[in-house]
Amino acid sequence: MKNLLIILFLIASIQITSAQETAIYEKYGVTVGTLQPGLEVGESVKNFKGKDQNNKTYSLDDALKNGPVVVNFFRGSWCPYCVKHLINVQDSLSMIEAKGATFIAVTPENQERFTALAEKKGFTFEMVEDKKMDIMNSFEVTFDVNDGYQNMLKKYENDLTKTNAIKKAALPVPATFIISQDGKIIARHYDPNYKVRMSVKDILNTLESI
């Protein structure tokens, strides 16, 4: 009887934790059943290509020939947390590049919108349009946006079915992956809470350890 009660208690605890996590994720706009787990440290990354803010084709493989690459996924120019993080990166970009690395920001937002952001904020790192969400899916950071969050964004005149290049209400977890020249992930920050990002300090510390 005692063992049975312990088992029932554990099951109930797991169910409560799961329900709490679901509620938290939904707060961040995540349709929980669609949330991808993100690639792990040690996994290899596939090459990807995309058009940047200067309408040039970016290739991850080409970038890795010159050194490590920091890949950041940002939700769009409409997200103040994304913009603040990218401003912090730009302010310290010379230090990242001094480590022999490059920084790239990948977004599902259409090129016209993030190009306007780059020009306004003076971003000199490359920003790449994930036109069909192929990059997001290859890093396993994609999720469908729930109706409640979509409706909230529309109040601020942002309809993801119009501002995303693929015309679909899907977003990436605002994750950051640091990739070594052999194409393997050596560090990652993955958190569905869009208010939390990998700090520039952590990026630099990782690059220093290579």
TrEMBL record:
Name of the protein: thioredoxin-dependent peroxiredoxin
Domain of life according to the entry: Bacteria
Stretches assigned to the Thioredoxin domain: 39-210
Record keywords, A-Z: Antioxidant, Disulfide bond, Oxidoreductase, Peroxidase, Redox-active center, Signal
BP GO terms, sorted: cell redox homeostasis; cellular response to oxidative stress
GO-annotated cellular components: cytoplasm
Any Pfam family matching the protein: AhpC-TSA
Entries under PANTHER family matching the protein: SLL1159 PROTEIN (PTHR42801:SF7), THIOREDOXIN-DEPENDENT PEROXIDE REDUCTASE (PTHR42801)
Record's catalysed reaction(s): a hydroperoxide + [thioredoxin]-dithiol = an alcohol + [thioredoxin]-disulfide + H2O
Protein's job: Thiol-specific peroxidase that catalyzes the reduction of hydrogen peroxide and organic hydroperoxides to water and alcohols, respectively. Plays a role in cell protection against oxidative stress by detoxifying peroxides and as sensor of hydrogen peroxide-mediated signaling events.
Family under the similarity heading: Belongs to the peroxiredoxin family. BCP/PrxQ subfamily.
Signal peptide: 1-19
Gene Ontology molecular-function annotations: thioredoxin peroxidase activity
Top-level class of the enzyme under EC nomenclature: oxidoreductase
Enzyme nomenclature, EC number: 1.11.1.24
